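Hi R.,

Here's the chain you asked about this morning:
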Amino acid sequence: MDKVNTTSEVAATSDFFETWISDEVLWVITVVNYVILSGTISFLGVIFNIVNVVIFAKLGFSDTTNISFLSLSLADGGVVLMLVGYSILYNPLVVEAVSILEVIESVSYIVFGWPYACFSRVAGCMTAFITVERFLCVSAPLKVKAIITRSRTITMAVTCFFVLFASIIPAFISSSLGMKFDPIYNQTHVGLMFTNNAASLQEISLTFNVVVQLGVFCIVVVFTVALIRSFVRKTEWRSTATKQSTKSNARDNKMVKMVILISVVFIILSIPGVVATFLMMFIPEYNIAGRYRNIYIASFSTFFPIGAINSTVNFFIFLDMSTKYRQMFLTMFNLKSCKPKEKKKVQRQIYKDSPKNSKQEKINNFTI
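And the predicted structure, written out as tokens:
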């Protein structure tokens, strides 16, 4: 008897989650998150990341961290670009023209869903790489140039993009857009078509994404803590040195604050996505075609504005905490005239960082 009651309770709970979010409520949630919040933030994010890419390219590639930040900006730009696509598809005018919401959901899942996840993982990998690089700059300054070179940094960035995009191939193979009959509307329309082995193929991509997410998350946390400890020890040692190290200490302090801020923002804003990916792995019906599709779509629509913030906020961090970035930004847009001494200093630094003058890379790669 108890077994029957337990089974009934589980079934009731399952039915509750299945109907918890109605189609009408889901529509309101998706419009607010996809179109208003995510669309607005992502549109600005595309502009800001383009600015990031241009500025880091102008600052030169002799500094390996410039390459890392440029790669991070490219990945973040891909994230917000996919979110702009979502905001366009879920615009009420587009939905009204299409008239069938499943068509919008199917197209967005194939065209923007997995690429969005891929760009997010690349951004995470580059954040982890930057954190590790900074840790080595502080803890092993005499060896860092031999460990992290310009060619290795470029190879790392290209490999991240290639491997992570290759990881979503099984998911693309498992599903496609096709014509299907809808008994509700009593008509045929575009929808998702899944292969017989779709579940196993999607599990490959999901598992790889989870491994990357957790690995990147752990690396960022561990090396951020290690960076802080190493920096504190080095600061204590430098306090006994000459006064000439004061300016260097100030730059190092800014550098640590910037890396910590980028890492903390990444960690906090990545948690919802990690949780959602775990739910997809351990709850089979938590997907776009499962019983809990409304909860799936609603939750992911909430994660998208968070992802947009994560891929946009670095612009403000660079602008506030990097002197070279800020001076280049102001010079590019003629927002403020640099003082003569500051302008000459920036020009000398840019010339020094150009490929023609990269015989000796600096230990502290990115001057703050």
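Residues 1-14, 358-368 have pLDDT under 50 and may be disordered.

Let me know if you need anything else.
M.
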